[in-house]
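S.,

Sequence below, as promised.
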Amino acid sequence: RIGLAGAGACRCRAAAMTKNTLAIDIGGTKFTVALFAGEHMARRESHATDREGGRDWMLPRIASIVKAWGEPVHQCGIGFGGPVDFPSQRVVLSTHVGGWQDTDLIGWVRETFDAPAVMDNDANVGALGEGRFGAGKGADPLFYMTLSTGIGGGIVVHGEVLRGADSYGGEIGHLTIRPGGPACLCGSQGCFERMCCGLWLEHDHGKPAHLLLQDPAFVDRYVVDLALGLKACIMLLNPARIVIGGGISKAGGSLFEPLRRELRRQIPTWSRARIDVVPAALADDSVLYGALVLAEQRFSKT
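The prediction came back faster than expected:
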């Protein structure tokens, strides 16, 4: 038995061992920061991204928010909305916001908060979050797709991200689904992202995605292209489940039910591949929880 004094000492030691993890989600439309005490999200703040301001606009604002909280930061996980060279831990670029090319974001965190940090592409990080805490629990392999300003993908196998040989695994957004289609920001034509992401939907149709998706006739046309991209994922990876996050996924059943019907139409009848496609359970926080998991994986032994 542990006496009252001993129990109190145990609680104090447990509190002392609880790490504060700073989670940062940098996207093309918004950026969000959160502070986790252990696995409890204690603080959270989100703001629209100034695309013209880029890195020089955003980093001072992140620093100001976190320092205003007045809490120590013991470690940091980051999900970045663009290609990341994972071995070198540097941002490659952002295709939607200028000023990020070859950024040493890890070094900035270390200098600003005196804490170690680890970073990955936001879709990979979102996959970790949904896999541990959200709609992907128990699904192995898991494919997570962010469907928002752009489109990205993350593959999780046995709890670990499958990044490929050069950190570019899962980049489903730049599969060509419409050869000869409209030009994408990447320089190709007819990319999945070009046909289906929020940025281009508004550009092509003059309305934001959430309004377009209120029209059942538009949805019926839209899910044809959406299913073409996901069919490639299903036939290549045979995931146990596909979880879709990002703003467009918030359309719920009015999007997912027609999408599943279209996938059943497109997937060959002989295939027993699963058509298990669901919205993210963590909504806007998939990447934040994934940043926590990423930091735990990197720093749990320190």
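Residues 183 and 189 are 4 Å apart (CA to CA).

Coffee later?
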